Amino acid sequence: MKIQRLTDQKLSELTGKCVAQEKAASRKLLVCLYEVKRRRLYSDWGYPTLFKYLTQDCKYSEAEAMLRVNAVALMGRSPVAKEKIESGKIGMTTASVLERGIKAKEKQDKLEVESSVCLNLLEMTEKCSYRQAEVMLQKALDLPAKKKVNIALSEEVLAKMEKVKKYYGEMNELELIEVLLDEKIREINLPQRERKSFASETSRYFSTRIKREAITLSGGKCEKCGSKIHLQYDHRKPYGKSGLSHKMNVRVLCLGCNQREAIKVYGIDFMGKYLN
Ligand SMILES: [Zn+2]
Fold this sequence. Notes:
Number of strands: 2
Structural class: mainly alpha
Low-confidence stretches: none
Number of domains: 2
Strand order of the largest sheet: 1-2
Distance between the termini: 46 Å
Mean pLDDT: 88
Radius of gyration: 22 Å
Bound molecules: zinc ion
Shape: globular
Largest sheet: 2 strands, antiparallel
Helix content: 55-70%
């Protein structure tokens, strides 16, 4: 078919058809990505997160990948959200704005946003453009405007940041600061029993000594996908299946790979209750 020879009418029809097809394909892709995330299947493909799979394997830009990751996260919040996105009542960009807003609210209040509030927001944003949705969310969730902090960094500090960024892999300065702060907060919040050097082998937790040895042996990386972020100590033979907290039974996995392994052991139906 020679596009140049089409009549205006035919070209108009064809363009409309292509738009509909592209939108349908986007919705179908989100449904697939939702299921990939539910199963943590990206871990078997060598990625610690859906975001990494989308940017590194699918070659989406970071912004494009984030849109999809956020829309998928919103689908996981309720069957209604999933249906609205699947049916196209809520577009991908609006879904992403909604998820970002809800997440910001949860971070601010340190409390999960109730499902009734989510449902209300879904109804309110259904016919909104994403810009309208942004304004509406700001008001509805009473979100504070982001604080702008200007800091001047010395060459020395910038060089240090570059070094740490290289260690963690692709991320911007803001993500790096958040990862480092999260790690520190996790360390501070560790329950006392986890910090003990000589935790019992039958305890759920590995001792500090075993963890230190394991992290050294793994080179500070997830044993499965190589990620250096959100690392956890996992029982090779699951604790729930009588695996001991012994040094021969420890391995370092990132959060995504750890969850995928748990799904393989306990099944998606069981684990689905604990993951979102
Ligand atoms: Zn991993």
